Amino acid sequence: MDRIAKYLLINAVCLWLCWTPNQSRAQASNDLPDAPGQMARPAVDTTTGVPQREATWRSLPGDFLHDQKDLWTFPLRLVKGRNLVPTLLVVGGTVGLIYADPHDMPYFRRHEKNLDDVNDVFDPMITTGEVIALPVGLLAAGYIRHDDREVNTALLAAEAYGDSVVVNLAMKAITRRQRPSDIAPNGDYSDTFFNGGKSPFKGSSFPSGHSTAVWSVATVVAERYRHRGKPWIPVLSYTLATAISFSRITESAHFPSDVWLGSALGFSIAKYQTLKPR
Predict the structure, then answer these.
(1) Which distant-in-sequence residues (6+ apart) come within 8 Å of 175 by Cβ?
(2) Which of 20, 49, 109, 142 has the most other CB atoms within 10 Å of its CB?
(3) Contact 217, 134 (CB under 8 A)
(4) Which tens digit of pLDDT belongs to each residue from 248-274?
(5) Digit-coded pLDDT (tens) for 186-231
(6) Which residues in 224-254 are b (16+ Cβ under 10 Å) and which e?
């Protein structure tokens, strides 16, 4: 199977996710209004009874600013003992993987050519396109099928993407870690922080931007439909996120610790901030 065929296959999977989760038109509670910003924002999903929040075009800028305020004041809540255990798990896992990176990364560099076919499928530009295609596809499907839940899910996915990417870029700008590909295959992988490029968009490795982005979008899709009788949607969403994240290691674009923290950021920000009922 050549690279184009593999790319089309992944696109088909994304389109499947975009079109299949919705309720039928007969089951939809209301048609979309002419002004999406006027849609109601119920605190509880009327189908499942699960507390959820909704997003609209009008509310999106304010919601994003609200999220950023909560995210950047998170250390203040942490000092008060809130969310201490999960934070320690993420930090502990990151520290452990940073310690192991110089020992693990040479293995992936030596075996990189063995995974050329896999890496072709998850080329950086392709995976970026796939991450963006999922909320865009949901948005288009929602308007075409008059399903306001799909539109809301697409807006929440975009919000989660923005929420997590801002934090990711700030961390990249501070840590400026070298990428594995910037180091000779037999070089020293132990002194990588504060040695990378100055740009957080390209030259900084920690944490993985692709992992953060794909986990934020996948988490929104998975959580929005996990209680609606379609358990395969979370499985497929998280499987795709895991595959894209792991490919960042096999392509020598990131260390395992970069991917771990990036994935944790995307998942936790989407689940516990963007999707938090308001």
Answers:
(1) 193, 194, 196, 204, 206
(2) 142
(3) yes
(4) 998 888 999 999 999 999 999 999 999
(5) 888 988 998 876 666 677 899 999 999 999 999 999 998 887 667 7
(6) bbbebeeeebbebbbebbbebbbbbbbbbbb
Using alpha carbons, select from 56, 139, 103 the residue that is nearest to residue 255: 103
CB 147 within 8 A of CB 22: yes
Maximum C-alpha span of the chain: 62
Say whether pLDDT at 32 is over 50.
Answer: no
SS (H, E, C) 16-71: HHHHCCCCCCCCCCCCCCCCHHHCCCCCECCCCCCECCCCCCCCHHHHHHHHHHHH
Q: For residue 271, what is the DSSP state? A: I
Domain ranges of the chain: 3-7+56-274
pTM confidence score: 0.79
Specify which residues 51 forms β-bridges with.
44
The amino acid occupying position 252 is S
